[in-house]
């Protein structure tokens, strides 16, 4: 069954009541507002007469082809976090997402063309949507670090791969080689230099995949979409509350979650900057994020996880360059684009960031080691 991802005019107050009833809620909402921050699912905030409310979402089944497995992952992870925070004496209603079950005990309710899920709205919460500075990055690091720490004793093999082989860099390289071979739109001539540069470093970028295959680094439950606005803070105190947007929680490497925030937020330029001379790794933002992140994770990371943190960060930037260039050569079939050569600009930008990270590798290592030493007291 295929479901539409976005709400439309056919979703009326009576639909919302039907959906709420399915989840065992009979009170009438006082207001329903569409939240437009996310690009994937349709999201509504529902306010109730008493001071609580809900987040209603229509799941995008074009991207999440097995929404029931995705919700099972989310259920396992939120349940684990709930138990952890209760043991720490924190308020579980604000420390993780709490999804409702339907009267039949399901986490999803199919209605008309949509597949709905319902969670409690976390009251008095806010997310940072602004361009990140060092204080936001330190908080984001702490937030994602807390999330990883809450899941440090969770058995990641219980989770299914919501998007199979999402960070299998070796398979991504193989797919890239096939796209180059086919060159379906004749675009390879625009980017021969970038394509060969990526292929030159393919061995080095496969190192972590090989270590994972040999069981040398642990698979953990990771978030895989660690943008700074996927963390909720208390509106008044700015204290960390919860990590949200758990759709891509899957088995993965710890380094990859650190990597994606750094890739996105510690770049001195935007992800799709056309002028690559503006692209570089801002080491103070890198340091701010890692201080927050490693402050919560260094004590449980294995020796090899600590040693491979920097290569993990570089690998994700490499992989993102490869994914954008693959999509450019394939004819823009995966990422939304808003201008010609958008994916090519993005790929060049990620490649420039990767090159800058290689130039700054010694500093990246020494900053990471210093923070780890400070946290382990050695
Ligand atoms: C996609 O849509 P968004 O921005 O949450 C992609 C990420 C990429 C990112 C690059 C499911 O995420 O892996 O890093 O674009 N998500 C998926 O901007 O492929
Ligand atoms: Mg997302």
Strand and helix layout:
Blueprint: H1 13-22, E1 31-35, E2 42-47, E3 53-58, H2 67-87, H3 92-95, E4 109-111, E5 114-120, E6 125-126, H4 134-150, H5 169-182, H6 192-200, H7 202-205, H8 207-213, E7 220-222, E8 231-234, E9 240-243, E10 250-252, H9 254-265, H10 283-297, H11 303-307, H12 309-330, H13 342-359, H14 361-376
Antiparallel strand pairs: 1-2, 2-3, 3-5, 4-5, 6-8, 7-10, 8-9
2-acetamido-2-deoxy-1-O-phosphono-alpha-D-glucopyranose is lined by residues 39, 163, 225, 271, 320.
Written account of the structure:
- The protein is of the alpha+beta class and 378 residues long.
- It contains 14 helices and ten strands.
- The chain has helices spanning 13-22, 67-87, 92-95, 134-150, 169-182, 192-200, 202-205, 207-213, 254-265, 283-297, 303-307, 309-330, 342-359, 361-376, and strands spanning 31-35, 42-47, 53-58, 109-111, 114-120, 125-126, 220-222, 231-234, 240-243, 250-252.
- The strands form three sheets. A five-stranded antiparallel beta sheet has the order 1-2-3-5-4, with helices on one face.
- Helix 4 (134-150) runs antiparallel to helix 9 (254-265).
- Residues 1-9 have low confidence and may be disordered.
- The structure holds 2-acetamido-2-deoxy-1-O-phosphono-alpha-D-glucopyranose and magnesium ion.
- Magnesium ion is lined by residues 40, 225, 245.
In a few lines, what is going on in this structure?
With 378 residues, this protein is of the alpha+beta class. Helices cover 46% and strands 11% of the residues. The radius of gyration is 21 Å and the shape is globular.
